[in-house]
Amino acid sequence: MLISIVSVVLQQLRQFSYWHGKLFGVLLTLFMASDAAATEPNTSAINIVYYPGAPRQEYSTDLLQLALSYPCQHYFQLQASNLDLPKGRAFDLMNAGQGIDVMFGSASLERIKQYRAVPFPIMRGLMGLRVALVSKEGKNKLQHLYSLSALAKLRVGQFTTWSDTEILRANNFNVETGSDVDGLYQMLALRRIDYFPRSVLEVQQNQQQYAQLQLEIDPHILLYYPTAVYFYVAKDNTALADTLLCGLEQAQKDGQLDSLFNQYYGGLLQQLQIDKRRIFKLQNPLLPDNVPLQRPELWYPLLLSK
User: Fold this and answer.
1) What is this structure's pTM?
2) Is the pLDDT of residue 5 over 90?
């Protein structure tokens, strides 16, 4: 009799343990699922991010795609707007939420007031590193220049409304301006200006674009002033700005940003031999306070000692 009672009790305990284990497992699964849902981005509603122009493969669009691929708080999908507009007009449409959601451009006090900047230097500061285009006859004109004051006396060409013009004048350079970009290259070929500084990331393309003028890339010097290129979104678009910054920070930490940058510009910088040139540093009175100069990992190494 006693043995029968004990047997029944053990059977009940085994059934209780089995179902208790099942219940615990279900509750644990639900808890883990809810916790995961709280940390994963919401992909149920896809937000389209439109960039200006037609579909294309270039550094800025590939970097946007990379930044938006990381698991951040919001989920966005990149798409071309097919709106080919002047840059100023495209910025205005972006701020009004009319067909364009993201732009990129130099960091300036005016832009930061008007739009929401993503404070991450996407070009690693190299838009402020300038190499001189010179005429065919003036290839070695800068060879023996070793002082900033001597360089400042030469005639430097710039477009009237570019920020470079104000920066160069603030550093007492002899600036000759033109209201037509094509005309500046013509002025250089005709030796009405001595040199035309272009970003190290653009100078080879500029030279090829005006190949008929037989312009040369000066092999001796570089001008440098601190600057940054940012992504910009509409002033009220905090979700996209936060997502881009989140993605850019992750891409920098895992090395994907450096890999993409080197894919586009590594060979070009080697060809220009920028580490073998004399560098003249200028002051930039237009530099906004939010440019993260105190973070060396965001800048090209050559610029850190300048």
Assistant:
1) 0.80
2) no
